[in-house]
Amino acid sequence: NAGVTQTPKFQVLKTGQSMTLQCAQDMNHEYMSWYRQDPGMGLRLIHYSVGAGITDQGEVPNGYNVSRSTTEDFPLRLLSAAPSQTSVYFCASSSRGESRVAGEQYFGPGTRLTVT
Amino acid sequence: EDQVTQSPEALRLQEGESSSLNCSYTVSGLRGLFWYRQDPGKGPEFLFTLYSAGEEKEKERLKATLTKKESFLHITAPKPEDSATYLCAVRPSGTYKYIFGTGTRLKVLA
User: Fold this and answer.
1) B40 is in which domain, residue-wise?
2) Is residue B67 a contact partner of residue B14, using CB atoms and an 8 Å limit?
3) How many whole angstroms separate alpha carbon B50 and alpha carbon B75?
4) SS3 for B97?
5) pLDDT tens digits, residue range B13-56?
6) How many domains is chain B partitioned into structurally?
7) Cβ pair B46:A104 closer than 8 A
8) pLDDT tens digits, residue range A10-59?
9) CATH of the domain at B83
10) Residue B59: exposed, middle, or buried by beta-carbon count in 10 A (0-12, 13-18, 19+)?
11) pLDDT for position A97
């Protein structure tokens, strides 16, 4: 199993450009999520999905868009990049956590994004 | 409001010097509390899940415990390879949202 994969690993954008960060998992997990990690702020939830066709907003969704057409893939779209979106982005997946299972998350290696 | 606070922010230990990291949480109901390890430039790596007060989990030199208000990650006789940032997260009941603390940066000196 490859686990959770993310592409690209590094990206530099100019203000106003758009792009898509890719995330895929091969563990058949229903739950997938996107976080951003900034110094001193910890991991903050951007968007999440509990299954194909179902997405919802997290703590910091503005400026980002997601869709979930398959169980495996959960891309994150930056609509019009801003310097405030400079960050490290992590994708994670887990089982939905039915019954007594809370659903530990498995993280990808991250995408380091710089917006100039 | 659900929140997670970790302390200390940073900790330096000599090899073999045992210590504990703290994770205090406030949630309306707890579905699970998670500990992760994060190495520089990498994604967090899952360590433990705790579900209810009184529960304990162990893995090598690490032991996680849980009360109704906080969790501790005890590190016994640490080695330099234990140096990393340790993250705590909670999943409140009735939600699929996970809330992370800001982490404790641990440095173990040889």
Assistant:
1) 3-109
2) no
3) 17
4) coil
5) 999 999 999 999 999 899 999 999 999 999 999 999 999 999 99
6) 1
7) yes
8) 999 999 999 999 999 999 999 999 999 998 888 999 999 999 999 999 99
9) 2.60.40.10
10) exposed
11) 62
Confidence of residue B1 (pLDDT cuts 50, 70, 90): confident
Structure tokens that stand for A47 in this block:
């968007």
* DSSP assignment of A39-103: TTTEEEEEEEEEETTEEEE-SS-TTEEE--SSSSB--EEESS--GGG-EEEEEEEE----TT---
Question: pLDDT by residue (tens digit) across A84-112?
Answer: 999 999 999 998 666 556 688 999 999 99
How far is residue A23 from each of residues A17, A45, A102, measured CA to CA in Å?
20, 15, 22
Suggest the residue from A23, A32, A36, A43 to mutate for an interface test with chain B (most B CBs closer than 10 A): A43
Retrieve residue A25's tokens: 């998992």
Q: A-chain residues within 8 Å CB-CB of B89?
A: 43, 105
Interface touch B97/A4, C-beta < 8 Å: no
